[in-house]
Write a structure and sequence with these properties.
Chain lengths: 288, 415
């Protein structure tokens, strides 16, 4: 395996100046995440009772919220909101990457597109898990973060398309064969299930619940992280920016206490809802 | 009610006794005084007024303490009002009459009904079989008279006296059908709207000749049910006999459903109402198990959730009564009719749209190969992604925790 950059082990080693905060996510990105997770929770909470309509909790929930009509209405409402958010994002990428020819969108250190370093990082990370090598250092977006992004991107297209195909079935039937209408139901429900299981178990643990970030990584809510965190979690990016002298350009201010507390509350609620839904999904799935 | 006991006095007698300071209840004294006061010519046919001379007394009782008074006015208006008492109480020829008199035999006149009753489930009635249903023997009215216990609007209450909760029905191990009937579409039409043509008990069970549903001659015997319901629902019965179920029943294949198998016998609901729509699919599914197990698409997923009644149930596509195989050109699920059938709910349904298979089973490769592979791909994707990341993240968790603990141990307070 090629050489792997080693991550600093302790905060002392980084020699960071205490109290500095660096911007990781812009306000627009944080808003996008907030819209995404709230609509996703809504879609999951309404999609699951549809997927597992035979289970007792699904029926009880349906009765509580005013029946199936209300559930489907809410599912479609969240779908519209998340579609708008997705369209804004795609348009943004298109404008920045293709119209304005902004660098680093489709290729390079800050791109979401996977590269050779990600492949090396996966292997190195596994070696570190097993105590066979040093902990790898990551760039702006680590391989699991890129996977999260593309999983959502793919899921959005697949679940979105199949959902709209069901919603406007007679219209889609103009250019889809009849069996595809059967297929979209299978695709929608299976891909939705995958998204729910993945986000509420893997994404939660990878990003929020693992030691080092527990109980949640606040950077997606506040947009900034401390210099120590930056240096430990994304040493390669830190070094690159330091080498280019661009580190100061990324300086942010310490997040306001209210924002931290507010974000903690919102995040805790989101994670709690997600975990409850995860348990319900697993019980329904294995109870089928 | 027609317990004609002893005649032991008259109003004249009781008047005499009151004036002698004696009690009305003194039976022997009353009989004696009546004998002295009234007197009679032996062999004279007794007029109503002669009997009422004593029996008009509202407090009149026999030796057993039973009230033996007769409301002459009501009796005169009743269907038997023109009859003399002795025409029913045939053993009373003279006054005074014996203390014990014979039970009135209604079959003297009503022999046809009596024969029917004798062959019915009510033949062993301990109580007087006629008055149990027709009410007070001295207040029997024609069945189209509102005052009659067997007037259509009064029939359920009359039958319910025994076949209701805690009644005779339970004693005999019968279902307590009265409450179910009252809440049914027939019962509410009858009780709430006073609809005379609404089916009451005897519309289906008959009145005198009630037979067990196990009896082949009974209108509630399975093979006879379509025709019994058809007395009123003629059009639907004709439809039913055109369909596969009706044809099977007509051919003697008795595992096919008749009206009551889907609609129940007593608790019949309005089929378009939410309650019936919600429970109707499992009813069909109890026989059509293979189709029920594949009715797992969104029609059923949505349909299973409380309160959503709009999604298609079996009979929305297959018809309820004139059910035909898909190969029959008259079937709503025949390929040439699908656009119309699906179009009932799905505006804009076209030929491609109706290729959708509501009973597709993605688990069976032979039946639905395309769907089978779509599901296989989606499942493989789900399993592989989750397997990889569960291993990945579990290892990561363990390793991170190990590092954390190690660091805490090394970097302890005195390190």
């Amino acid at each position: 395996m090629p050489e792997v950059q080693e991550a600093p082990i302790t905060i002392q080693e980084t020699g960071a100046k205490a109290g500095r905060f660096f911007v990781r996510f812009t306000r627009a990105q944080r808003t996008m995440h907030a819209v995404l997770f709230s609509t996703f929770l809504g879609l999951a909470a309404t999609g699951l009772p549809l997927r597992f309509s035979q289970s007792i909790w699904a029926r009880r929930l349906a009765t509580e919220v005013g029946g199936f009509g209300a559930i489907l209405f809410f599912n479609k409402l969240c779908a519209i909101v998340i579609t708008i958010a997705f369209s804004i994002h795609v348009k943004d990428i298109f404008t920045r990457g293709i119209m304005n020819r902004e660098k680093g969108i489709f290729w390079g250190a800050t791109s979401m597109v996977a590269n050779w370093k990600d492949v090396k990082d996966i292997f190195a990370h596994f070696r570190w898990f097993l105590g066979l090598g040093p902990k790898p250092a990551f760039e702006c977006y680590a391989y699991w973060e890129k996977f999260d992004y593309w999983a959502v991107f793919w899921g959005m297209m697949v679940i979105g398309f199949s959902g709209y195909a069901m919603w406007f079935a007679p219209f889609f039937a103009h250019f889809l064969p009849g069996w595809a209408l059967n297929a979209v139901l299978v695709i929608h429900s299976e891909e939705g299930l995958l998204a729910i299981l993945f986000i509420f178990s893997i994404h939660f643990v990878n990003t929020h619940l693992r030691p080092g970030s527990f109980p949640m990584d606040m950077v997606i809510f506040t947009g900034v992280e401390s210099e120590e965190e930056f240096k430990t979690k994304r040493a390669v990016e830190y070094e690159r920016l330091a080498g280019q002298g661009k580190l100061e350009a990324r300086l942010g201010s310490k997040p306001a206490t209210w924002l931290v507390n507010f974000s903690r509350g919102v995040g805790a609620i989101a994670i709690a809802i997600g975990l409850i839904l995860l348990v319900l999904t697993l019980t329904a799935y294995f109870g089928e | 009610m027609s317990r004609a006991g002893n005649l032991q006095g008259s109003s004249t007698a009781s008047w005499a006794f009151e004036h002698c300071g004696m009690t009305k209840r003194n039976i022997f004294g009353m009989a004696l005084v009546a004998f002295l006061l009234v007197g009679f010519a032996p062999g004279r046919a007794l007029a109503q007024s002669d009997c009422l001379a004593c029996h008009a007394d509202k407090g009149l009782q026999d030796a057993g303490g039973h009230n033996i008074s007769v409301d002459g006015e009501t009796f005169a208006k009743s269907i038997h009002g023109s009859l003399k008492c002795s025409e029913c109480h045939a053993d009373i020829k003279d006054y005074p009459h014996p203390e014990k008199i014979a039970k009135v035999k209604c079959d003297t006149c009503h022999s046809g009904q009596a024969t029917e009753l004798a062959g019915s489930v009510h033949s062993d009635g301990v109580e007087h079989p006629c008055t149990s249903c027709h009410g007070d023997a001295h207040a029997v009215f024609a069945k189209d008279d509102k005052r009659s216990a067997v007037y259509p609007l009064n029939v359920p209450k009359t039958c319910g006296a025994c076949h209701g909760n805690n009644g005779m029905a339970q004693k005999h191990g019968l279902a307590t059908v009265f409450p179910s009937y009252l809440d049914s579409i027939h019962g509410s039409a009858l009780t709430k709207e006073g609809l005379l043509v609404a089916a009451n008990c005897q519309s289906c069970h008959r009145s005198h000749h009630i037979l067990s549903r196990k009896d082949a001659k009974s209108p509630t015997f399975k093979a006879n049910i379509p025709n019994t319901c058809g007395i009123c629902h003629a059009g639907i019965t004709a439809n039913y006999y055109d369909g596969v179920h009706g044809r099977a029943v007509a051919a003697g294949k008795m595992n096919a459903p008749v009206c009551s198998d889907c609609h129940t016998a007593h608790a019949i609901e309005q089929p378009t109402a939410a309650g019936f729509r919600m429970q109707s699919t499992p009813i069909c599914g109890s026989c059509h198990k293979d189709k029920f197990s594949t009715y797992r698409d969104f029609h059923s997923q949505l349909g299973a959730l409380g309160g959503y009644v709009e999604t298609a149930r079996c009979w929305d596509c297959h018809e309820a009564h004139d059910v035909r195989p898909a190969s029959d050109p008259h079937s709503p699920v025949h390929s040439t009719n699908l656009v119309t059938t699906c179009g009932k709910c799905h505006a804009g349904a076209n030929l491609s749209f109706v290729q959708y298979q509501p009973h597709a089973n993605a688990r069976v490769r032979k039946l639905n190969p395309a769907l089978y592979f779509v599901r296989l791909f989606m499942n493989l994707l789900l399993v592989s992604v989750l397997t990889f990341f569960v291993i990945h993240t579990a290892l990561w968790l363990i390793r991170s925790r190990y590092e954390q603990v190690k660091k805490a141990a090394e970097g302890g307070p005195h390190a």
